[in-house]
Design goal:
Layout (H helix, E strand, L loop, with lengths): L1 H11 L2 H30 L10 E8 L6 E2 L3 H10 L4 E14 L6 E8 L3 H5 L5 E2 L15 E4 L1 H6 L10 E4 L2 E8 L11 E2 L2 E4 L7 E2 L19 E6 L5 H5 L2 H10 L9 E6 L16 H33 L1 H9 L4 H41 L6 E2 L7 H27 L3 H5 L11 H5 L2 H31 L10 E3 L2 E2 L7 H16 L6 E5 L10 E6 L15 E5 L6 H5 L11 H5 L4 E4 L1 H7 L11 E6 L5 E6 L13 E3 L8 E7 L1
Parallel strand pairs: 4-10, 6-8, 19-23, 20-22
Antiparallel strand pairs: 1-2, 1-12, 1-13, 3-4, 3-11, 3-12, 5-8, 6-10, 7-8, 9-14, 15-24, 16-24, 17-24, 18-19, 18-21, 20-23, 21-22
Helix pairs in contact: 1-10, 2-8, 2-10, 2-11, 8-11, 8-14, 10-11
Length: 663
């Protein structure tokens, strides 16, 4: 304690040096603390609270070259749960849905997860308030209006105790709130969670996030493929050993398929994705490598700050050389003085760490607010925790210790290696006997060279990143966003009759076109680069479907956007060949489609070598429904997308629509 009291007195005598040192360390330690909090919250923190390595995702794919994935029916889920006990300790079902929460004009679209009654127990969580739903409430078509709120949603609603037992309007219907999930729980994503959790028994009352609005609503229907499956392996079983047991379970799974099923299927087990909410297996990519690179860059910042401060301490040690020589002369040991100087360094590091912790909290809050604005239209609850917890505080203190060793130990050892005669005579500086070569490679000079090298490395890296971001921001997306106003209409939230929905959509477009200053108004079911996508398989109608169940599907998978006439004018896309839909074709649900150049080339490469005239194409969905459309081979101005694109009339798919007005 005496050493620390003396260190405080010494630092107070030099407020300018102390302030500059604290600011330097705050930047270095703050960056490392912020990056570690991000890596810890996104990569290191378990997404599943209880024995996360035992939890896997189950998927089914056709046994052909295309490996088309689909979700599971409730019948398949029940059979796997009953007959997979030798492989799974428990198996739960989950569906990603959307719901309108609130009354009348206050209603907002939000994500909702529908789960089986054992989902929360499989994840190892207990409600912080109330209870979770029961097996009776999850029975298909039970339609018992109960809801479990997420912790973040409960807090946004005021966090009142009387929230449990109250009513929440979902899709215009009152639901009883029966519980609240733990803070930060998602079970599906390391970043986001739904606002509400609902039992599978209310499936018919909600719209699916990944299925068409007019698909089957009866969960008991054998061909209603709407469920994603999550399982917990039996204790001691790994994913690799579990895969060896899958063939027997796959044979049982194929035995219960309908007679008109599209060939044999296989079961697959994969590690759950931390970032993707999808109905097929997703690879998170080199997350560990990215986290390591981020920590490496942050470590370089800390090293530069420490070397900078080490230079300052070397200069300060030179100014204090007479004081240190005098203390050595009167009998103080070298270790005693080194300990004193290290205490000064540790005190600086702790003060810098505290300021850096505040900087990291501010930076991470700014990041969360940016993400909230980016995904604000989706109304997710963010579950990633970037605020410092015990782990972050411990690592920040470790950074302080590392910084102390980096910038204090060398100068302390250098300062105590004194030339008593020269220092007591106040002949400050390098002894005259040291040669020019040795002075050039002195510790201070090497430190400066290291700082310059590391600084250039960071500057070059930042420059490359900035150049890449600048280039990406300047890319032509293929449409003109300036002057466009976008809103969303979702008739699936209120179960509007498709005919009434179409009538309202066309009326809304016409009223928008009649407004002063509006050049064009149109409807599309998907925005370019939007959060939701809808896909179809596009092929030539001249090509027959293969009879071999293991043969690859012809054509190509592509995005599918239903539109009204004038859509391309509204987003500023030029039609290079062919024509747009007419109003009559749009209202009659004519079997027409407009293909992008990518879709045209990919879908008919084996049939038509050149694009010359009108032909037929086949749009085929994942649910084995096929429809033949006359393809008005329209080549669009290039829209940068990795998939082909097909644009049928909006009257064929209109529950979720996005009006676009160009002024």
């Amino acid at each position: 304690m005496n050493d620390f009291r003396f260190a405080v007195r010494q630092l107070c005598k030099s407020p300018g040096f102390t302030s500059l040192a604290i600011v330097t360390l705050a930047l270095g330690i703050g960056v490392n603390s912020a990056i570690f909090a991000l890596v810890n919250g996104v990569v290191l923190r378990p997404m599943i609270p209880l024995r996360a390595k035992e939890v896997v995702g189950i998927f089914t794919a056709r046994q052909n070259a295309s490996h088309d994935y689909r979700q599971f029916s409730h019948t398949e889920y029940r059979d796997l749960r009953e007959n997979g006990s030798d492989l799974f300790a428990d198996l739960a079902a989950l569906e990603f849905g959307v719901a309108g929460i609130g009354r009348d004009h206050e209603m907002r679209r939000s994500f909702a997860f529908l789960t089986s009654e054992n989902f929360f127990s499989l994840m190892g969580v207990q409600p912080v308030r109330g209870r979770f739903y029961t097996a009776e409430e999850c029975r298909p078509n039970a339609n018992i209006p109960v809801v479990v709120a997420s912790y973040a949603f409960w807090k946004r609603m005021g966090g009142r105790n009387d929230f449990i037992g109250g009513n929440l309007q979902i899709n215009g219907r009152p639901y009883t709130v029966i519980g609240v999930t733990p803070d930060g729980f998602s079970g599906v994503s390391a970043l986001v969670a739904p606002d509400v959790w609902l039992p599978l028994g209310v499936h018919s009352s909600l719209g699916s996030a990944f299925a068409d609005s007019e698909t089957l609503h009866d969960l008991a229907e054998p061909k209603n493929y709407a469920l994603n499956l999550t399982a917990r392996l039996r204790p001691g079983m790994t994913i690799e050993t579990a895969k060896s047991h899958l063939p027997a379970l796959t044979r049982r799974f194929n035995a219960i398929q309908p007679s008109d099923a599209e060939g044999a299927r296989e079961l697959q087990i994969h590690k759950p994705s931390r970032f993707s909410i999808s109905t097929s297996p997703e690879d998170d990519g080199p997350v560990t490598l990215i986290g390591t690179l981020l920590m490496g860059m942050a470590g370089a910042v800390l090293l530069i700050a420490s070397l900078n401060l080490a230079n300052m301490l070397l200069a300060r040690g030179t100014a204090r050389s007479k004081e240190i020589a005098l203390r050595l002369a009167v009998g103080a040991s070298r270790w005693r003085i080194v300990r004193q100087l290290l205490c000064e360094g540790l005190l600086l590091a702790i003060c810098g760490g505290l300021v850096g912790l505040i900087v990291s909290i501010w930076c991470n809050d700014l990041l969360l607010h940016s993400l909230a604005r980016l995904l604000g239209s989706m109304n997710f609850s963010f579950v990633v925790k970037l605020r410092p917890d015990a782990t972050v505080l411990a690592v920040t203190f470790l950074f302080c210790l590392i910084a102390t060793m980096l910038f204090s130990l060398g100068p302390a050892l250098k300062a105590t290696k004194a030339d008593l005669v020269n220092d007591l005579k106040q002949q400050v500086g390098e002894p005259a006997r040291i040669g020019r070569f040795s002075r050039f490679f002195a510790a201070r000079h090497i430190s400066v060279m290291a700082q310059i090298a590391l600084s250039f490395m960071l500057l070059f890296s930042a420059g490359l990143f900035f150049r890449g971001a600048l280039k990406a921001s300047g890319l032509n997306p293929g449409f003109v966003a300036a002057g466009d106003l976008v809103t969303e209409l979702d008739f699936s939230l209120i179960k509007k009759d498709p005919a009434d929905a179409r009538r309202l959509i066309f009326a809304a477009v016409q009223r928008a076109r009649d407004l002063p200053g509006v050049k064009m108004a149109a409807i599309g079911t998907m925005l370019p680069y939007g959060n939701f996508t809808n896909s179809r398989r596009i092929m030539s109608a001249r090509e027959a479907l293969p009879t071999d169940p293991k043969a690859p599907d012809p054509g190509a998978g592509g995005l599918y956007t239903a539109i009204t006439p004038g859509y391309f004018d509204a987003i500023g896309v030029k039609l290079l060949r062919g024509r747009d839909f007419t109003q009559a074709e749009a209202r009659k649900m004519a079997r027409l489609t407009i293909c992008s150049s990518l879709a045209s080339l990919a879908a008919i490469a084996t049939t038509c070598k050149t694009i010359r005239s009108i032909a037929d194409c086949l749009c085929r969905s994942r649910k084995a429904t096929t429809a033949t459309f006359t393809c008005m081979y329209v080549l669009l101005q290039k829209i940068d997308t990795p998939l082909p694109h097909s644009f049928p009339p909006c009257a064929r798919h209109c529950a979720v629509s996005i009006p676009i007005c160009r002024s």
